[in-house]
């Protein structure tokens, strides 16, 4: 392949078959899988033991989610012992005239209103190898339910509307749609479909009981670098259609009481400006980001004059506005400051009074030194903010917070069986210094009585660093399978994410992408230098596209730093894939990594593309995962990366390819199937570290 006078030779291009029907290629992948299974056969018993541990650490009893109040009902999900899928349930609220309180508890028992199972996923899944419910939404009057189901694992959904009480179907299902679907009042839906390249490109309006063929297309996004999303305001009065690329987002809105007017523009399409909107009272509230306002500002405008914007919370260089949540009388702002999340709540002025700028917000206090907090669905007309909280040692928890009194009440915490005690573990925040002097945060978890900081502890390090995705330090039950064996678990918050604000993201994309790799290497060197581990003990992991690109790139750059590496569905043949716009993710990746049809980007991307930089040198032990039916990261580029490594590297370390041949990427619907993958990964890592105990008789 030749471009700009540069010649690239790909000896493994023949591995790509978009029809996925070539028997020669299928045989090749099966042979790779057989080789992997044979190589790991000696630790199969240990792998099974690890899997059993992870299952035991997951609560396998009847359990329910924290009930959420919607109108006259509590809605919740129930899981049953031995069942793979959730039951979607509700109970009537007998005293629904009483204002909500953080102390409210859904009544149970013989005297309580009966539980009504609206949808049982275990029944619906019968006869399907794969089953997944991608959306479940009650209508505003709670009489109907719309849900989207995928029975093939290809991300293409069929949408059903049923009577909430009787379970009977209302009209015919909508076919070939996405799970992006919202109620537009009680008798209409708005949904999104995809084009032939799986890009969300059209938004439709559907009247209940009408035929899908008569649905009205509200908007068609013809620019193939943009995709569509739809979401409802907390007030449920407006739907927002967001057209987005990686650096530009603009918004249209639909007034559900005036649907005949169609979509109206709220924020225009301006390159480099990103917006998110919601509604309360007679104003729209808009989070706005640009090159100058890189950490976002919050503005508001009257509904009848959307061009008249006023600043509510101004831009700050040291604090990023990550998200916001509106109520009839309050506003909750989710911030990031020095890579730590904060939640500030404000009281909104009375109707008719001037709104902002807002001052004297109240911060919610959290106990862990590093943690994660996210907004959960809350009741718009109440003063109760519901949020999701966890840390690397604190299991997922749901709290209700009274924004008037400042009182927090724990509503649900995920139980962790087996005598788990959070106080047995410590979390830390450390900072590495990258090659350009940038300080890079690292989140660390370990068990107090197993770590001596003498360099002899095994070390497991994770990174991602793309799309502005913040890898916040949260509770992952699987980490304790490692940590309880003396591992130190570390997350490198490298540039390309948005942990330190939008500039953190901007400094890890396009022609600054190599910062992502040098940051990760700097974090590894810091941990080794400070005796958290050693080169002989350091194992690394990244995946799902660009996280795998991260690991692939640094394996070529500094293979000497690591003992083992796991790449899950990695984007490794970057130049070739970005030159092919028929791959669904290619056009959007041009805004993340650059367009190699331009000479400057071609050579820059080629300088780190994992496939293009494999060379004759020693590499650590490597496990690579692929998915035969993945349309985002093609199995062929993963397979050719492994093939080129095997033909080129100069060591005898393990190099294994594990290719899923049956299911689509992200199609995991069985509750414990992911644990089986994790158990295999950990068995591989501990085999590489010679930590597998002797096989028992």
Automatic annotation (TrEMBL):
A Pfam family this chain is assigned to: Peptidase_S9_N
Keywords: Hydrolase, Protease, Serine protease
SUPFAM superfamilies: alpha/beta-Hydrolases, Peptidase/esterase 'gauge' domain
Top-rank taxon, per record: Eukaryota
Positions of the Peptidase S9A N-terminal domain: 2-411
GO molecular function: serine-type endopeptidase activity
GO CC annotations, alphabetized: cytosol
Keyword Protein biosynthesis: no
Residue stretches making up the Peptidase S9 prolyl oligopeptidase catalytic domain: 475-690
Protein name: Prolyl endopeptidase
């Amino acid at each position: 392949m030749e471009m700009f006078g540069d010649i690239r030779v790909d000896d493994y291009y023949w591995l790509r078959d978009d029809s996925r029907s070539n028997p020669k290629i299928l045989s090749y992948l099966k042979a790779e899988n057989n080789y992997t299974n044979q190589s790991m056969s000696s630790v199969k018993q240990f792998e099974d033991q690890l899997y059993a541990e992870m299952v035991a650490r997951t609560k396998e009893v009847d359990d329910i989610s924290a009930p959420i109040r919607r109108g006259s009902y509590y809605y919740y999900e129930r899981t049953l012992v031995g069942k793979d899928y959730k039951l979607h349930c509700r109970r009537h609220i007998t005293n629904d005239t009483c204002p909500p309180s953080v102390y409210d508890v859904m009544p149970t028992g013989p005297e309580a209103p009966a539980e009504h199972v609206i949808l049982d996923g275990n029944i619906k899944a019968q006869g399907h190898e794969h089953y997944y419910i991608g959306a479940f939404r009650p209508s505003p009057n709670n009489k109907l339910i719309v849900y989207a189901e995928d029975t093939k694992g290809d991300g293409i959904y069929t949408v059903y509307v049923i009577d909430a009480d009787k379970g009977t179907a209302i009209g015919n299902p909508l076919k070939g749609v996405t799970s992006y679907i919202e109620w537009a009042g009680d008798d209409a839906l708005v949904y999104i479909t995809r084009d032939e390249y799986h890009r969300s490109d059209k938004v439709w309006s559907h009247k209940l009981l009408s035929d899908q063929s008569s649905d009205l297309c509200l908007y068609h996004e013809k620019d193939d670098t943009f995709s569509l999303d739809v979401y409802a305001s907390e007030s449920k009065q407006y739907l927002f259609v967001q057209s987005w690329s990686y650096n530009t987002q603009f918004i249209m809105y639909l007034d559900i009481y005036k649907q005949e007017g169609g979509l109206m523009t709220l924020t225009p399409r301006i390159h480099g400006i990103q917006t998110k909107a919601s509604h309360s009272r007679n104003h729209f509230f808009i989070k706005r980001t640009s090159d100058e306002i890189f950490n976002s500002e919050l503005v508001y405008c009257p509904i009848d004059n959307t061009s008249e914007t006023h600043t509510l919370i101004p831009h700050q260089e040291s604090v990023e506005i990550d998200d916001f949540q509106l109520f009839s009388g309050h506003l909750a702002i989710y911030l990031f400051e020095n890579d730590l999340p904060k939640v500030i709540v404000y009281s909104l002025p009375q109707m008719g009074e001037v709104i902002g700028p807002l001052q004297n917000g109240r911060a919610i206090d959290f106990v862990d030194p590093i943690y994660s907090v996210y907004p959960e669905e809350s009741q718009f007309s109440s003063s109760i903010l519901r949020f999701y909280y966890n840390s690397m040692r604190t299991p997922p928890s749901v709290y209700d917070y009274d924004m008037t009194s400042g009182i927090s009440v724990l509503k649900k915490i995920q139980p962790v069986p087996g005598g788990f005690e959070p106080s047995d573990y410590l979390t830390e925040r450390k900072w590495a210094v990258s090659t350009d002097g940038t300080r890079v945060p690292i989140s660390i978890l370990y068990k107090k009585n197993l770590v001596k900081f003498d360099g002899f502890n095994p070390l497991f390090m994770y990174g991602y660093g793309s799309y502005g995705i913040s890898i916040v330090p949260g509770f992952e039950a699987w980490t304790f399978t490692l940590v309880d064996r003396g591992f130190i678990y570390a997350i490198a918050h490298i540039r390309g994410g948005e942990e330190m604000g939008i500039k953190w993201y901007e400094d890890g994309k396009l022609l600054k992408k190599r910062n992502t790799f040098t940051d990760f290497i700097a974090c590894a060197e810091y941990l080794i230098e400070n005796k958290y581990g050693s080169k002989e003990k350091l194992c690394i992991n990244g995946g799902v596209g660009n996280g795998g690109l991260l690991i692939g790139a640094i394996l070529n750059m500094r293979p000497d730093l690591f003992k083992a590496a796991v790449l899950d569905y990695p984007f490794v043949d970057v130049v070739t894939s970005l030159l092919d716009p028929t791959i669904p993710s290619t056009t959007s990746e041009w805004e993340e990594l650059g367009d190699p049809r331009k000479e400057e980007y071609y050579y820059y991307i080629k300088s780190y593309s994992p496939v293009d930089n494999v060379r004759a040198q020693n590499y650590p032990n490597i496990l690579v995962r692929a998915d035969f039916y993945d349309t985002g990261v093609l199995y062929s580029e993963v397979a050719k990366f492994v093939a080129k490594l095997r033909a080129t590297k100069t060591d005898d370390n393990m190099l294994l390819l594990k290719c899923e041949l049956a299911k689509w990427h992200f199609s995991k619907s069985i509750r414990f199937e992911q644990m089986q993958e994790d158990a295999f990964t950990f068995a591989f890592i501990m085999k590489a570290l010679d930590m597998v105990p002797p096989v028992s008789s």
